């Protein structure tokens, strides 16, 4: 009997779209693909796909990302659901946006869309289809807020990294130059880094010390409320 | 031609559920209704309903809230979309949770569900249907994070309020007692209050000064990044 109650309601298509941020030790990047079907065929798009009957949204995001790019075991987080009536001119589709953070150099693609996928510098990203530009703006704001309130970098940096690379990452996310000495002091006060007895010799003749995150301390800081990284 | 692409995909029901927080100058409350249809008829539930063809999610949340309670012009914010396959035993339904903040005393209900609706003290709320408990937990965490990073109270307090009422609100949200002098110092350092030359005489023989929010300064602080209210 209660089925009647549900059955008179309108059904809709539900999609997921992934804003995939990457870092290549220098700049913040975003992974986009060239759409290979109408409408908007040939234009740049976020990586996305439809929700299926047998999965929840998180599972759909993981499947879409893995199928199209070959990437798996990626940190994904739901950020917002977009529902403007005409957002997709093909058919009404509600889309749930996810954001992902990855280290560009440690991830190799072998998904079905690999030829169509491309990493863009976040500052040089092309115009996107539908409301995908709006999704990217929200994801950037989320990433910025995260960087100001929690330690960040674990998913974006290689295991070992230099202080300069960490500063590059914060500068990319916050979109401003930071004072080096001030940055180092702030980062050290977070107490989430371990300085290694090992140098990256590729950057200068003297080399630069390498660091790793202290995973336990890092996770603890991420969980903490009321923390702020003021820079 | 592209329609074929969309038409082979699964469609689902999409609903909105509203976590409505209220404040009565003493305690944080939540508005719940007794569900009047199966499944789970007679149990306590968030206020919700299905998305219709001719509206986006924000509009659906506004409509559902107004139809069921008579409340309009309420601050609503989307927080998360829930999609576990069996979350609704009636039929697969994806639900987008919204949270709302209102001042209990200034809002009078006259919607169709008014007899079934009830304000519960947040600490004494009953067990809810489906995954609604999980939604409330997320909304409480969001409210707490908001109270720690932005000024809060504009939507929850009456226009004029005492410092004690504002402290009650923060204590309810953060779920802990706060030191009075420390709280007053922190709040004053925010510089978002205007002290009136007028007292609430109902609280004691001496009375307590009334305050209003300086709306411009308040809004500016809400927009600011990197602010933290450490208490």
Which segments of chain A are poorly predicted (pLDDT under 50) over 5 or more consecutive residues? none
Largest interface: A-B, 46 and 45 residues
Helix-strand category of chain A: alpha+beta
What kind of sheet is the major sheet of chain A?
7 strands, mixed
User: Strand share of the residues of chain A?
Assistant: 25-35%
Distance between the termini of chain A: 59 Å
Q: How many DSSP-defined strands of chain A?
A: 10
Keywords (chains A, B): Hydrolase
InterPro entries (chains A, B): NUDIX_hydrolase-like_dom_sf, NUDIX_hydrolase_dom, WH-like_DNA-bd_sf, WH_DNA-bd_sf, WHD_NrtR
Protein name (chains A, B): NUDIX hydrolase
GO molecular function, one term (chains A, B): hydrolase activity
Model description:
2 copies of one chain form a homodimer. The first copy, chain A, has 231 residues and is α+β, with helices and mostly antiparallel strands. Chain A has 2 domains: 2-148, Nucleoside Triphosphate Pyrophosphohydrolase (Alpha-Beta Complex); 150-223, Orthogonal Bundle (Arc Repressor Mutant, subunit A), CATH 1.10.10. Chain A is 30% helix and 29% strand. Chain A is built from 6 helices and 10 strands; from the N terminus they run H-E-E-E-E-H-E-E-E-H-E-H-H-E-E-H. Chain A has helices at residues 2-7, 57-69, 132-149, 163-174, 180-190, 215-223; strands at 11-23, 28-34, 44-45, 47-50, 75-82, 93-103, 117-121, 161-162, 193-200, 208-213. In chain A, the strands form 2 sheets. In chain A, strands 1, 2, 3, 4, 5, 6 and 7 form a 7-stranded mixed β-sheet that branches. In chain A, strands 8-10-9 form a 3-stranded antiparallel β-sheet. In chain A, a hairpin with a 7-residue loop joins strand 9 and strand 10. Chain A is elongated and about 70 Å long. Chain A starts with a helix and ends in an 8-residue tail after the last helix. In chain A, 32% of the residues are buried. The mean pLDDT of chain A is 90. At the A-B interface, helix 1, strand 1, strand 5, strand 6 and helix 3 of A face helix 1, strand 1, strand 5, strand 6 and helix 3 of B. Chains A, B: Keywords: Hydrolase. Chains A, B: GO terms for molecular function: hydrolase activity.
């Amino acid at each position: 009997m209660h089925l009647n109650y549900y059955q008179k309601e309108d059904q809709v298509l539900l999609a997921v779209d992934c804003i995939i941020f990457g870092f290549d030790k220098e700049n913040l990047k975003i992974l986009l693909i060239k759409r290979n079907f109408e409408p908007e065929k040939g234009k740049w798009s976020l990586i996305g796909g439809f929700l299926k009957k047998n999965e929840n949204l998180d599972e759909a995001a993981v499947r879409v990302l893995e199928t199209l790019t070959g990437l798996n075991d990626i940190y994904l987080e739901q950020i917002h659901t977009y529902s403007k009536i005409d957002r997709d001119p093909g058919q009404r589709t509600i889309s749930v946006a996810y954001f992902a953070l990855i280290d560009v150099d440690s991830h190799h693609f072998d998904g079905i869309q690999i030829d169509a996928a491309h990493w863009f510098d976040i500052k040089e990203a092309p115009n996107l289809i539908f409301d995908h530009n709006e999704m990217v703006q929200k994801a950037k704001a989320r990433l910025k807020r995260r960087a100001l309130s929690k330690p960040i970098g674990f998913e974006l940096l290689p295991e070992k990294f230099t202080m300069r690379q960490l500063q590059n990452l914060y500068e990319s996310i916050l979109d401003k130059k930071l004072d080096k000495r001030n940055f180092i002091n702030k980062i050290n006060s977070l107490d989430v880094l371990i300085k290694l007895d090992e140098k990256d010799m590729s950057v200068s003749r003297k080399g630069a010390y390498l660091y790793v995150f202290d995973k336990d301390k890092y996770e603890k800081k991420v969980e903490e409320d009321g923390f702020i990284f003021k820079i």
